[in-house]
Specification:
This protein is α/β, with parallel strands linked by helices. Helices cover 39% and strands 16% of the residues. The structure holds flavin mononucleotide (FMN). Residues 9-12, 36, 38-39, 42, 45, 84-87, 119-120 line the site of flavin mononucleotide. The site of flavin mononucleotide has 15 residues, from helix 2 and helix 3.
């Protein structure tokens, strides 16, 4: 099993973070958590503090001595869930000015998985250009755009349609494994 970094920012949608952490742990992976200061406020405001229960390690946002600040640490990749437009801009600009942004920068330079789940609407041209820039550098943008064809019955079911994509692009799922029914379960009529 692998180790992943989960970055959580001050964008709305902390439920996406907790579901990602929960599924990674359930699948047997280790989760190293980095939460920005606004991220902690929003996680608390949205009632998702149980997020921290799923982490193997929690790193301080200012701790550049943490292992994930270095390319030598054996992480399989990183997801930023949800990703604010501020953090997206910092990753796109390569500022490396906090541990989350530095860890994302490390994933890009080491050619490891970097999945970014932006949460904003509508997007400005600046947001779109930043998404283009990180995509060109190797990141995968997975917007918080849930699908409805699997007929989700709860908010968690709906959120998991996004989390399933995140897990797939992190290579965190085994062969033929998924957390929501795939399209082939519905299209074969
Ligand atoms: C309740 C709440 C919801 C927010 N939602 C978003 C959002 O969906 N997207 C976004 O880009 N910023 C959002 N913000 C603003 C960010 O928290 C703010 O820009 C912050 O500086 C982001 O910092 P970070 O990227 O270091 O976490 C929200 C703020 C609050 C208080």
């Amino acid at each position: 099993m692998s180790r992943y970094i989960l970055g959580v920012t001050g964008a709305s949608g902390a439920i996406y973070a907790i579901r990602t952490a929960m599924h990674l742990k359930r699948l047997g992976h280790g989760v190293s958590l980095i939460v920005t200061k606004p991220g902690r406020d929003v996680v608390d405001f949205e009632g998702q503090n149980a997020l921290f229960d799923y982490a193997e390690k929690v790193f301080n946002i200012d701790d550049f001595f943490a292992e994930c600040a270095s390319g030598s640490a054996d992480y399989a990749g990183m997801a930023v869930v949800p990703c604010s437009m501020g953090t997206l801009g910092r990753i796109a600009a390569g500022t490396s000015d906090n541990l989350l942004v530095r860890s994302a920068d490390v994933c890009l330079k080491e050619r490891r998985h970097l999945v970014i789940v932006p949460r904003e609407m509508p997007y400005s041209l600046i947001h779109i250009e930043n998404m283009e820039r990180v995509t060109r550098a190797g990141a995968v943008i997975i917007p918080a755009s849930p699908q409805f064809y699997s007929r989700p019955q709860t908010i968690e079911d709906l959120v998991d349609t996004v989390v399933a994509k995140v897990l797939k692009h992190l290579d965190a799922l085994g062969n033929n494994e998924n957390i929501v029914p795939g399209w082939n379960s519905f299209s074969a009529k």
